[in-house]
Amino acid sequence: MAGTAGGLRYPLLEDIVDGSVDHKGCPAKRSTSGGWRSAYFVIGNEVAERFAYFGIQANLINYLTDRLGQSVPAAAESVNTWFGTLSLMPLLGAFVADSFLGRYATIIITSLLYILGLGLLTLSVVLPLPSPSHDCQKRGNTTCYPPHFRIIFFFSSLYLLGIGVGARKAGIQAFGADQFDGRNHGECIGKSSYFNWWLFGVLAGTIAAQSVLSYVQENLNWGLGFGIPCIVMTLGLLLFLLGSRTYRYNLKSHERSPFMRIGQVFIAAAKNWLATPSEDITGGSLHQQDSQQFKFLNKALLAQDGSKGNGRQCTIDDIEEAKAVLRLFPIGATCLGYTIVYAQSSTFFTKQGVTMDRSIGPGFDIPAASLQSCMTMAGILFIPIYDRILVPIGRTITGKPSGITMLQRIGTGMFLSAIAMVIAALVETKRLETAQEHGLVDMPNVTVPMKVWWLLPQYILVGVSNVFAMVGLEELFYDQVPTELRSFGVALCQLIFGVGSFLSSFLISAIEKATGGGDGGQHGWFDDNLNRAHLDYYYWVLAGLSAVGLSLYLYFAQSYLYNRRSIS
Fold first, then answer.
1. Is residue 143 within 8 Å of 262, Cβ to Cβ?
2. More confidently predicted of 182 and 152
3. Residue 558: which residues within 8 A CB-CB, separation 6 or more?
4. How far apart are CA 292 and CA 276, in angstroms?
5. What pTM does this model have?
6. pLDDT on residue 191
7. In terms of Cα–Cα distance, which of 322, 338, 148, 161 is closest to 233?
8. 164, 172, 231, 461: least buried by Cβ within 10 Å?
9. For residue 547, what are the contacts with CB-CB under 8 A and spacing of at least 6?
10. Distance set, CA 437 to CA 180, 353, 523 (Å)
11. Which of 6-20, 498-512, 553-567 is least confident?
C-alpha cells in the first residue's frame, strides 16, 4: 500500500493489509495479525491431523489383509480407491469455502466431520466379534474374519473419515498461506518458506504416527491404535481455535463468484467460436505472450453480435484468470506419473517389507508399516537443508525469493521419483533371487534372509522427491490462481494425487488380469505369495511412465507463463 506522499511516510497505512480483516472485522494490521504468529497454530493443527490420518492410512493395507481377509491386490486397490476418493473431496471443500462459508468456518465444520469418522472407525474395530461359526471351526481356520455387516460398517466409517479429511485439506493449507501478504517483500519470502515448513509439520505428524501407532496396532490393540488418532485430532482442532484472535481473514468479494466469472469466459468464447474479428480484440491490454496463448479465450471479449463493443460480458481480468487456471491443467496431467509412484509407499513397499528380515535385536521386529517413517525422516532432514542452505544460495544466484522457480522445483522432484522406481525394481529383483536361492519361493510365511534396510534407498528418494515436487505443486497451484480461488487451487493440486491413486488402482487391476493372477494356478505380478509375484516388473513399468511424464512435463513447462501479478 502506498505509504508516501510528498516525501512523507504514513506508518499506520503501511501496517494495514489490503483485503484482510482481523477477528473483530476491522482492517488487519501487519504488526498484530498474520505472519508466523498465526502460521504456527495452523501448522500445529496440521501436525495433529497428519498424525491422525497416517495413524489410519499407514497400516491400513495390513488391517485389510490380516483382519478383513482381503487379498494383497484387492487390499492395494481398496487403499488406492479410498485415497483417490479422499483426494477428490478438496474440490467440494474448496467450492464451499470459496463461494459460501469462507475457509475458517469450512475448516471447523470439516474437522468435526473428520473426528466423527475417526470415532465411528474406532467403534467398528472394537465392537466384539460373534463366536466363530461352525464352518470356520470345521475348516480349522486360525482366523475367522468379521461378518459382512462389520465390513460395511468399517468401510462406511472409513469413507466418512475420508470426506472430512479431503474437504478440510484445501481450506487449511490455503488459510495458512493467507496469513502472509505476497505484496510485501518480507512476507513474500515468508510465504515461500511457509510451504516448506508446512511439509515439515506434515512429516513430523506422519513419522510420529508411523513409528508409534504402527507398533500399537500390530502388537497391542487395533482399537487403541485407531482411537488415539481420534483424540489427537480433537486436540488439534482446539489448538486451531486458540489461534483465532491472531488470524487474518480474507474479505469476501461482493462481485460475481470467481467460478461464475471463469465459467462465463468459456461460455462466451464458445458462443463466439466462429467469429473472426479483424483487429486485436484485447486492445493491447494483455501482454503479447498472454494474448497469443489460449487465443480462443480472447473471443470472450466480443459482444453478443460478435463485434468488439460495450455489450461484452467478460473483462480483461476475467480472461487472465481463466487462462491462469487453464495453464495449470497440462502441468498437472504430466505429473500423474509422479503421483502414481507416490501411491506405492503405503501399499507394495509395505508388503515387501513384511517378507524381509526386520529384526533389529533379540526378539524385536520393527513393523513393516513403520518403514514409511524412513521416507518421512528423509523429508524432515532435507527440508531445513533446502530452506536454510539451498534456497539462500539459489536466491543469491537467481535473485528469486524462492531460489529456483516452482516449475524447476517440480521437475527436480519428478526426476528423483523416477530414479526411485528404478532402484525399487533392482531391489525387488534382488529379493526374489534371494528367496529362490534359499528355497523359499513356495514358503511365503518364512522370512527372506535379506535385511529390510535394502528398501531404504527407495524410501529416502521418494521422501526427498516429495520435498521438491509436492511442495512445488502446492505452491504453484496456490499462487497461480485468482485470490478468491486459492482453496480451489489447492484442491486441484490434491486432485492430481487422487487421480494418481485411481490410475494406480486401475493399473494394478489391469495388470492382474493381463498376467493371469488367480487364474488356473498362474502366478500374476501381484500374487499373494510375493516370492512368486513380480513387483519388479511393475516398478519398471512405473519407471517408464515416470520418464514419459517427465519428458512431457519439460515440454509444457518451457511454454508456461506465470501469472505476472503473483510473482511481481
1. no
2. 152
3. none
4. 15
5. 0.73
6. 80
7. 161
8. 231
9. 337, 418
10. 59, 19, 19
11. 6-20
